Amino acid sequence: MGFIMLLAIRIILIIVLTPLVGGLLAGFDRIISARVQGRKGPPLLQPFYDVLKLIKKENIQVNKTYKFYVYVSLIFIILTAVIMLMGGDILLAIFVLTLGAIFFAFGGYASQSPYSIIGAERELLQMMAYEPMVLITAAGLYMVSKTFFISGIISQDVPAIVYLPAVFVGFVYILTFKLRKSPFDLSLGHHAHQELVQGISTEYSGKELAVIEVTHWYESIISLAFVYVFFATSNPVSHVWAVIACLVVYLFEIILDNSTVRVKWQLAFKSAWIVTGVVSIINLMILSFLKF
């Protein structure tokens, strides 16, 4: 009975704390972006203020179905966060995360807006671009640790980054898709100069727009959790270095977002597959000849 209570408390803490940390990262993102652009920028807690404001706003309902997909997407993303942060099966987490992205794309199609439909199509193209790299990352981590469970992967004596440097580079490359940063923010435009306006989220308002923002906070932490796995080992000190690596990668993505412009979907798709097919496959081929 005590074990069940402890497990329930851990799950509740993950569900509550993950978006809080994700929101702080979003605030950090805005501050750094403003500094890069020579502006003061908003306060660190501005993303939370925005979400609270959206919750209080009146919803403008386009139809009765498109909102359903957003909430289902959030449920799958929360489930992914629980699986990963509890040290569960990384392959299962990837599949559940993909389901969340698919339902989000369905919401874009259901809204019947031209901008949303284009955004939904680009969302699916993004998934086709980055999913192979994510699966190869899981395969590489399995080859190193002989397990798909994150708790087992981070209990090794040597960090996975030692054996999978090219896979890590490839994952950071497609991480730009997952974090919706330039030059690969194809489906959901956050900047005024982009031709897609708000893309897949164009027709959402009020509470549903707040749900989309919270979902993105979860996704940010999930994406950085993959980075964390590359550096964490059985040595407690390594977990500190893993957190630092996550922050460095996130800072890199922010700077990249503010120093590049969106590329065409064709280039994004081809480049992601080239990186996946050349860099990562070579790394796995070399790894297959090593004996652990």
Automatic annotation (TrEMBL):
TM region positions: 6-28, 66-84, 90-111, 132-154, 160-177, 239-256, 268-290
Record InterPro entries: ComplexI_Subunit1, NADH_UbQ_OxRdtase_su1/FPO
Biological source species: Aminipila luticellarii
Keywords for this protein: Membrane, Transmembrane, Transmembrane helix
Signal sequence region: none
Membrane topology: Multi-pass membrane protein
GO cellular component: plasma membrane
Domain of life: Bacteria
Stated name of the protein: NADH-quinone oxidoreductase subunit H
Subcellular location: Membrane
